């Protein structure tokens, strides 16, 4: 089973993805960890696509993350896309809470990268909060389009519109995988 969790920054993709992967006993892959290099460096497409293709070689996995340019690789042979489509205020609240928690804890996002949230970054044009504000509506429109596109008829889309729905989905997935995924 191959699953991609999508949603706007701050929607909880990584947290949800980890929980789902654990309950299904599947490997969890974090798209941001595949994408970001040390010191917030961007990979060239060739490098990114190669790293992603290697990470997705397994027969079963849960991957969180969007990165539109990677869709041909991620969704070529995927079974399910789960869209965390929470309200704007909920998503923004989660993005702000996460950013401030990471600033206070000085948590390194991905081991060996040195990438951390800082107050300087939080109030820059690269702010994750600013990104959430700018991309929320655009992402919702794009994700809704994916669900309607005949290009992706081979994918089962699941749209979860609240944290409560997401928690219920996780409970049901843990208890009866066939009910959820068939």
Helix share, percent: 40-55%
Question: Please, what is the average pLDDT?
Answer: 92
Sheet with most strands? 5 strands, parallel
Poorly predicted regions are none
Indicate how many domains the architecture comprises.
1
What is the gyration radius calculated from CA atoms? 16 Å
Q: Please identify the oligomeric state.
A: single chain
H/E series: EHEHHEHEHHHEHH
CATH topology grouping: Rossmann fold
CATH architectural name: 3-Layer(aba) Sandwich
- The strands making up the biggest β-sheet line up spatially as 2-3-1-4-5
Derived from helix and strand composition plus strand pairing, the structural class reads alpha/beta
- Would you report the number of β strands? 5
The CATH class turns out to be Alpha Beta
What does this structure look like?
By secondary structure, this protein is α/β, with parallel strands linked by helices. It has one domain (2-87, 138-181): P-loop containing nucleotide triphosphate hydrolases (Rossmann fold, 3-Layer(aba) Sandwich). The chain is built from nine helices and five strands, in the order E-H-E-H-H-E-H-E-H-H-H-E-H-H. It has helices spanning 13-24, 31-35, 45-55, 71-74, 88-105, 119-122, 128-148, 163-175, 177-181; strands at 2-6, 28-30, 61-64, 80-84, 156-160. The model has no long low-confidence stretch (mean pLDDT 92).
Topology:
Blueprint: E1 2-6, H1 13-24, E2 28-30, H2 31-35, H3 45-55, E3 61-64, H4 71-74, E4 80-84, H5 88-105, H6 119-122, H7 128-148, E5 156-160, H8 163-175, H9 177-181
Parallel strand pairs: 1-3, 1-4, 2-3, 4-5
Helix pairs in contact: 1-8, 5-7
